[in-house]
Amino acid sequence: MTIINADGSPMKAAAQASVTAYQAADPISQDLAGWAPALGSADADLLPERVDIVARIRDLVRNNGWASGAVRRELDTVIGAGLRLSSKPDYRALGLSADWAAEWSDQVEAQFRLWADDPARWCDATRHYTLGGLFGMAYRHYVIDGDALAVLQWRDHGAGFATTVRVIDPDRLSNPHDTMDTETLRAGVELDGWGAATAYHIRKRHPGDWFTGGRDAYAWERIPRETPWGRPVTVHFYDKERDEQSRGVGRTPRRRGRRYPAGSPPSDHPAQGVHGRRDSGHGHGDGGGRGLSQGRRRLRARPGPDSGQDRRGPLGRRRRGPDPGPGGQRGPDSGEIRPAGDRGHVLAQGLDAVPRP
C-alpha cells in the first residue's frame, strides 16, 4: 500500500533513527559511513602533508590560466602598485599639539618615500624591487604557499638608509639537515616554553638547488626573531587557524583533481572563489541570472583600465587580450571568454583536505 502526499507523489518512508545522540556521529549512516578522519594536532595534521599541498597548488597556478589569473587579480587588488605610509602619531598621549603631529608626519612620510621608492632599490637586499614590489612578492608567497617570510638586514652602503629587506622563499624554512620535529623546533621554527617563535632556521640555498648550491645547499643559518633590544630581524606571517600551528598553508581551495572545460572552471575553482558571483536565476544584478538555472555561477572578466586591453573593438567584437603565459590558457584577467565548446586537458586542482561522503 502506497501513501500519497497532497501533490500526488509517494510519501517517503521515515528515516532510520540514529544510533547516536548527534547524527553527525552516526557510524552506520548511509551518508557518513566510511568517513572517519583522524583527530590530530594542528602541526600533526599539516606538517607531514604541507609540502605536497604547496607543490600541487603551485603546479595549478603555473599551468592553469584561471588559477593564475585569480592570484594575479587578488595581488593587484590588495597590493596594487604598493602600500603608502600614513603616519598619524597619537599627539594627545604624547602631550603635544596637532600642528606638531602634522609636521612630524610629513617629515617621516617623506623620508619613508625616499627609502621605499629609491630608483637604486637599496631597500631590496637583491636590488630588484622597490618596497611595493617586495610587498607584492611576499603577498604572493602568502596566497600560494601560506607563509610570507622576510629578513631585515643592515647594509651600510652609503645610500642614506642601511635597512634592507630580503624576502625568503618559505621552502628554505626547515629543520637543520631535515631532522624530525621536536617540542621546540617545528618545520624550521624554533619555539620557547610559551610556544612563541624565537628564531628561524633558514637553509642557505633552496633545496631544489642541490646540484648548483655546493656546500650551501646543505647548510642552515639560525636567524633570531629580533635583536636583544627589540628590533625585528625576521618577519614570518601566516594564518594561524588552530592553536599551536607553526606553519601556514596556501589559501587556494584544496580539492581532488578532475576534468573540466578549460574555459569554464567548476563552481569550487579558485577563480570562482576570487572573481565569480552566484546568480540565483531571478535577474539580480547587471543581466543577473537570465538563462542560468538556480545556483549556477557566471564568471565576468573585467579588464582594468591599465591592462592594455579593450573590451570591444569598433565592430563590437571582443578583442584578444595579452598572451596567456606559460599555462597556455586565458584567465579572468585576459579580457577574453572562451567558447563553451573549447575543452582543455586534465588539470589537478590540489588536495581535498576533507573527503566528501
TrEMBL record:
Listed InterPro entries: Phage_lambda_portal
Compositionally biased region (Basic and acidic residues): 237-246, 276-287, 333-345
Q: Which domain of life is it from?
A: Bacteria
Question: GO terms for molecular function, please?
Answer: structural molecule activity
For this chain's UniProt record, which GO biological process terms are given? virion assembly
Pfam families per record: Phage_portal_2 (PF05136)
Outline the segment boundaries, as ranges, of region: Disordered: 236-357
Give the protein name, as stated in the record.
Answer: Phage portal protein
